[in-house]
Amino acid sequence: MRILVIEDERKVANFIKHGLEEERYIVETVADGITGLEMAMNNQVDAILLDIMLPGKDGFTLLREMREAGVNTPVIILSARGTTEDRVRGLDLGADDYLPKPFSFEELAARLRAILRRSIPEKSTKLRCGDLSLDTVSHMAYRGNTEIELTSKEYALLEYLIRNKNRILSRSTITQHVWKHNFDPDSNIIDVYVKRIRSKIEKKDGNSKQMLQSIRGVGYRMREVQSEDGING
Ligand code: CA
Asked: Quick one: 7 and 115 in the same domain?
């Protein structure tokens, strides 16, 4: 999930960025209204967090212009201007929610999950591979009903593998998608992450088929294996 943060106060922007990255979102920040509007129009993001008092173009104007242009990305307004009049104005201009500053990160994260759930059909927030499932809004992973604890990068890699399940993915393809740029292709980091993910998702009974397969000399494949749970003779 990609989130655009339009906020000129660097401290606040960094606070939100770091918090959301820990929650495994991809976050872009921009500090003025003009660039903010451009990015809202051109970049495919899943939600926007929008400050009101911005250099270049204020948040209300930005929101109105973006809605007039037909961009319906969910928006949460974050603003110290928390009067009823301001909130009503923001909501009337097409904001999905309004959070007065100062706010707690937990509340921001919860409201963000709520608008993402409303804007994305239920089915597309769940990814499955056998009895392994991922919730792409909350970024939780489960094997059967057991929650699996993953770090941000482990989650990102696993989500990419499951989105492409049953396909063989080369190391360089995985690197481009999960690690983006500035990455040494000879590094063995993917192998390190694969090992960690396996230790968390694979069953340790020795009989179950491995889900995350190594394809020698090429890369990896996430294989859909039928669960052996729940078979009654
Ligand atoms: Ca501001």
From this structure: yes
